[in-house]
Amino acid sequence: MSEPHGDLRETYGCIAELWCSPRDVDLDEVKERARRLLGAVAERDSEAAASLARFLQSAIDEEQYVDLFELNPRCPLYLGSHVFDEPKTCAQAGLSDRNGYMIELRGIYGHLGFSPNGKELPDYLPLMVEFLSLSAGSGDPVRGKLAREYVLPYLPPIRAKLKALDSPYAGLLDALERLLKTEFAQEVNHV
User: Fold this and answer.
1) How far is CA 31 from the centre of its chain?
2) Domain containing residue 178
């Protein structure tokens, strides 16, 4: 018998890896794992499965990824960077709203026993999705708080940017958002 949240954990894990650079993961292997999960995703939300399937059909190479998300990114994967103004001085950095957002994220991660490795900022989307994968099935309401207050409200600006750039990653973002909304709507209904 499979673990009740096993498919959800694995789905979020695949989505987290799909957000990573093709040089950091075996993209073909991750895509194949994600394809095997499409049935389980469709059971939760058929539109999420369709969005994920469309993304899996797209060809992504490292050069496109770097141009889109790294160095001088056209669409940074740091959720806070799409919402909060960048501080102009070091003194402003300590008082910025994004800084407060990231401090709160670190607190949430720590509450649920997750310690980021320090290579990425706490608002890095693949890290956030990895955390959702690792904490799936925990039953802790702080996980829902993370999704509802720190992830979902920050997705529209990145979606708008990805759609304006006609990026296939818009489909991956749509799949993630629908899964989060479906998962946390179910949790609310069971309380």
Assistant:
1) 16
2) 6-190
